[in-house]
């Protein structure tokens, strides 16, 4: 019970930090969308869900354009009831919603009418056959596209994993191979994949020219892990960062998205 209370308290704290960051970005005209963590239990447990949504209702109405949710610790093939909770209770407040899965043993059709923006395959804990698992996740992407859901992979550690993820057609790729934690958000810019991973030091050493100021979508994660995605095989489009909120501090990470 105490652990559940600590979890919901953390989620509310993370959301409120995201709101404050979004307010600053909005006031300065900086394009920024943050994803804040929500556990599967919060999604399905009435008391926790009500407490979280009460905190959400305290935020400005425009916040749904700047803060989304990332559902983690949930089943790879969620129940119809869980999806409906996500679509109705949370979809009313968040334009962008992400569902994380930890296995390719999933049924993509379960996400029908979920209102999800992305389904993310988390490979952090996978030790063996990581390339095979990435390829297996790619088999689900056509069905996800039919549901108008974008696919993402997080936890990419090597160039081979990055190239394998690109071949699957995912919209977002994340992991330490692309960027380390950054002090500040990045505006959209072009770089060569050969210059990855990015870091504050490499950014200071290189002259990287901005290419656009379009809004991009990123995640506010519960653990320090940057979000990225790839523009194509010859250049990378680095967008406004995501932020990791942990209690009283905030880490920024560069983000990369692949054009549709």
Q: What tags apply to this protein structure?
A:
single chain; 260 residues; alpha/beta; 8 helices; globular; disordered C terminus
Outline the structure in words.
With 260 residues, this protein is an alpha/beta fold. Helix content is 33%, strand content 22%. The chain has eight helices and eleven strands. It has helices spanning 2-28, 40-44, 46-57, 80-90, 130-138, 141-146, 159-168, 200-205; strands at 34-39, 67-72, 97-101, 118-122, 150-154, 172-174, 181-182, 189-191, 227-228, 236-246, 249-256. The protein has a seven-stranded mixed sheet. α4 links the parallel β2 and β3. The radius of gyration is 17 Å and the shape is globular. The termini are far apart.
Describe the structure concisely.
This protein has helices spanning 2-28, 40-44, 46-57, 80-90, 130-138, 141-146, 159-168, 200-205, and strands at 34-39, 67-72, 97-101, 118-122, 150-154, 172-174, 181-182, 189-191, 227-228, 236-246, 249-256.
The span between the termini is 43 Å
Q: How many strands appear in the DSSP assignment?
A: 11
| Main structural class | alpha/beta
| Rg computed from alpha carbons, rounded to a whole number of angstroms | 17 Å
Report the order of strands and helices: HEHHEHEEHHEHEEEHEEE
Mean pLDDT: 77
**Strand order in the largest sheet:** 1-2-3-4-5-6-9
Residue windows where pLDDT falls under 50 for at least 5 positions = 208-260
General form: globular
The percent range for strand residues is 15-25%
**Helicity, as a percent range:** 25-40%
**Count of alpha/pi helices:** 8
Sheet with the most strands? Answer: 7 strands, mixed
